[in-house]
């Protein structure tokens, strides 16, 4: 049960890093290659006017390039590597903004062969329908995600993750670094330290890494965005590498084979009336 709900989030997830950052300078330096000699600028509590203006401009560009949509359809080839199993399967996704997420898994996932499961997510609940073996359907409140994986996801966050928008963007930027080709920004919010690396020319996300502010946690992970292609007026990351680790490690590789904005949803979620419920 836990893995099925984790899977729904993991298809679109960012991860949480385990190694605590004692100083923001240390985190930024770890993200800098030895060959790059650009200066790291640390914004203090009372930043200089020019530094504050630069940060404000950077963050406004990050917000402006977020993908907006009414509907979104996609076919994703997924490679899953877990502590005990490795699988390859396809996921069909349909989303309507601020309304619904539909998913259908075709292949083998966690030992479930064939058309293993379908899922429907809305603002209030998550419903998963299992096709194989003992057919049954399970419904849980959206808050169940927080209980299972201990990550404060809400519906909007999940939709942003699926479509490739950076999440947990905070206005509290404590440092930034501009290199020749990349720009790194470190934000610290109430829950996470977020190191976001972007392309220096068009501000598309290249890598997102989050650390718990709570130094007692031992979660680690990151998401890498690649193979950007044009999707309407936006740049869309058609390939993503995701790693999540705490006591065990989970790797996901997402290859978007088909994707389209603002077309009618292709998928339905119909559960037979007599299906057993758990």
Supply database-style keywords.
globular; 5 helices; 16 strands; single chain; alpha+beta; 278 residues; outer membrane lipoprotein receptor (LolB), chain A; 16-stranded mixed beta sheet
Characterize the structure shown:
- With 278 residues, the chain is of the alpha+beta class.
- The protein has helices spanning 2-10, 24-30, 49-64, 144-149, 155-163; strands spanning 16-17, 41-42, 71-81, 86-96, 100-107, 117-122, 125-130, 136-141, 173-178, 182-188, 192-199, 205-212, 220-231, 234-245, 249-261, 276-277.
- It has a 16-stranded mixed sheet that branches.
- Mean pLDDT is 76; it is low at 12-49.
- The protein is 17% helix and 43% strand.
- It is globular and about 65 Å long.
- The protein has a single domain, classed as Clam (outer membrane lipoprotein receptor (LolB), chain A).
